[in-house]
UniProtKB/TrEMBL annotation, chains A, B:
<feature type="domain" description="MoaB/Mog">
    <location>
        <begin position="10"/>
        <end position="172"/>
    </location>
</feature>
<dbReference type="InterPro" id="IPR056596">
    <property type="entry name" value="FLAD1_M"/>
</dbReference>
<dbReference type="InterPro" id="IPR001453">
    <property type="entry name" value="MoaB/Mog_dom"/>
</dbReference>
<dbReference type="Pfam" id="PF24102">
    <property type="entry name" value="FLAD1_M"/>
</dbReference>
<dbReference type="Pfam" id="PF00994">
    <property type="entry name" value="MoCF_biosynth"/>
</dbReference>
<dbReference type="InterPro" id="IPR036425">
    <property type="entry name" value="MoaB/Mog-like_dom_sf"/>
</dbReference>
<dbReference type="InterPro" id="IPR050101">
    <property type="entry name" value="CinA"/>
</dbReference>
<protein>
    <submittedName>
        <fullName>Molybdenum cofactor synthesis domain-containing protein</fullName>
    </submittedName>
</protein>
Length: 257, 257
């Protein structure tokens, strides 16, 4: 596959609550699903605390390495929402009250006859010159600086922002995949599967063990960016399962065989 | 609080399937819960692909920075299970078929009248001199090298290994916490809450917005390592909610008031 068809991404989930266990993250899996469908390879995820130095360091590591970085969390109106300041610091930009965001929010609170408090004004802060990510749920926008997309942590808002962001992105060749359920554990198939992987270098064959409390089985996933190698490898995997089943039947014939 | 009462940890979840969205991770939240209960601060989580260089780099970054590193995934018998080799490389150790693990596995497969295949033997591989983490579910042990604890990705096995590991760990002063439900959104409370946080520097006050599809409310979490500052800050937060409610009632009196 050519280098140019690959688009890479990382996610940075920000929030003490994810690390204390109080909140179980729902955004990582959601973004992973949508990026895979879009032909963007999510290569790394980090979860960090609400600490500026830590956020800045992680962001700088990720944004230099991947085509896109998506963040979640820390853009609300309270004192522990420090993502906008951290992103600004990472880019060496001033963090300002964005005039367009101030107008958007002021109008929304006016319509709702609510006070546009100092805390609420914090939600208009972003690195100078950032582009808005529209927020159809609760108005306060996310924002984009270069290849970094800053979104909310509340899942409904994160998901709405992701929906607005995806159409803007450059995407690569979609990764095609074929799932093949396998009734045998990894120990039964490991050697054969390694040989199949070696014979089909344009594919990536993943083996995901499952355990039902009694015995292991496996889900085998063949991935490729072209249909031909995908089908060739998948056929080899299916043949392996048939062969193993025949072998097991020969070794342990049923009583009436 | 004294430095010595803080014990820090990171988690490294390894596996392409977590990044493609095919598997939704359950181990991060589980470990986060148990570490918090034990008085160990989970400070960072990374999810990386099944790629040796990437695993080695992440592991070396995390093990030098935190007291403990816990990994999940990639220790099975198939070709995509490369965690043992990667951990060995990170420590500059040879990756060997551990004699005690070979014995354990050979006996288990003999008892079950199953062949101890070449693939299954891969599960005995670990960095030379590593200590086992017992696996009561499926025998193949996890392992420990210095401050790195290597465990399985299948949640039932991961959880059983964590149960075996936790009693070995040095723990810090437990973080105490008090959850206070707040019927107001972050925009209503942000300024007052920031003042309370400033007045109670020995606590960490987190604000977690909730959205029910109609309106925002907030869960406020006060955390501290000592009971006295915890109660003082929690009392101030409760007083803030009472005060806000009184103010709102005064502004919008009910018809019969």
């Amino acid at each position: 596959m050519s280098q140019s068809t690959t688009v890479t991404a990382a996610m940075l989930a920000i929030g003490d609550e994810l690390l204390s266990g109080r909140t179980k993250d729902k955004n990582i899996g959601h973004l992973a699903d949508l990026l895979t469908l879009s032909g963007i390879d999510l290569k790394e995820v980090r979860i960090v605390a609400d600490e500026e130095d830590v956020i800045v360091e992680a962001l700088n590591a990720l944004r230099s390495r991947y085509d896109y970085v998506f963040t979640s969390g820390g853009i609300g109106p309270t004192h522990d929402d420090i993502t906008a300041d951290s992103v600004a610091k990472a880019f060496g930009l001033p963090c300002v009250y964005d005039p367009a965001a101030m107008t958007l929010l002021a109008e929304m609170y006016k319509r709702r006859e609510m006070e546009f408090t100092e805390a609420r004004q914090r939600m208009a802060r972003m690195p100078q010159g950032a582009t808005h990510i529209p927020n159809p749920v609760s108005t306060a926008p996310g924002f984009i600086v270069e290849n970094v997309y800053v979104m909310a942590g509340v899942p409904q808002v994160f998901q709405a922002m992701v929906d607005n962001v995806l159409p803007m992105l450059r995407t690569g060749a979609k990764m095609l995949s074929r799932a093949i359920p396998c009734p045998y554990g990894e120990g039964d198939i490991g050697t054969l599967l390694a040989a199949i992987q070696k014979a089909h270098p344009d594919t990536s064959i993943g083996s995901y063990p499952k355990y039902d409390g009694q015995r292991f089985s496996t889900e085998l996933i063949v991935r490729a960016r072209e249909t031909e190698p995908l089908y060739a490898a998948a056929t080899a995997v299916e043949a392996m399962i048939v062969e193993l089943t025949a072998r097991k039947t020969a070794t342990n014939p049923s009583p009436d065989a």
